[in-house]
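User: structure tokens for this one?
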Amino acid sequence: MINPIIVLRPSLAEASLVEYDDLHRAVLRELVYGLCRSNVFIQNTNIPQWMVFHSALCDTELTTTGVAFNPIIMATPTNYSTVYTTMLRVQEVGKELGFEHIPLFFYMGLLTKALEIQWANPDSLSGVALGDGGMHLIMSLFSDIGCLYEDAGLKNILIDSNVFAAGTVQQIMKGKDFDRALESYKMLEEVLLKRFFIQFNVWCEEKSFDVSHFTTELESLDIAFSFQKPNTIPNMIGRLEHIEELLDINILPLIEQFRSEGCQTSPTFNFGMIFCFMF
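Assistant:
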């Protein structure tokens, strides 16, 4: 078998990445959620859990996905010949549609076979970009988090808090238990962000930065959630967009300043911030 050719990717500085508006808006919405759930600026919050919060404020109209060229080939999917034929068919479809490169996703078991085939035929399959399926891609990310943070206290936190059993935590660290890993990391992120915003509030008081006007806006959003009805969703979205605008202009620069000072002062603080803001 031909060994793969390692292509060195450019660094982030060389790549000159551009931050899209949708991504920046998602970051602002996550910060609003964290600020509300932290109970620092508002007490006894009515803001629900993460999934309910985003579902309630989703104004995107869901559409039915159209599927073309499905099934591609009627054969046993685990055979090398089937995987190879599938890759060739996808490449043909991409060329017909005018795509120089076309992505093709496999679940982890088939991806290894597809990569072996592509390594052995780099010229004929050069335009096919292989990747993990969505769940396996996130599981790989979860295992990376476990590798980085397991011995830094993550494993002990999840076990000693009696949230999960020791065996379950071991599976979470390896990226095996998808649902529990997702739930545990969301809970841990919320706890760390709460500690972050507590210290941020103390820092604002020490620096004489007035954030009371922003607290009032968060309280209005919290009240809106306490009386949540279907016909109030548009008003809630409008209020949330106004809060995000205030956050972007007035609060986000202060958060970045506090975060920068904390990371320079404490390596432990910096280590925790990498976890909170890695997504």
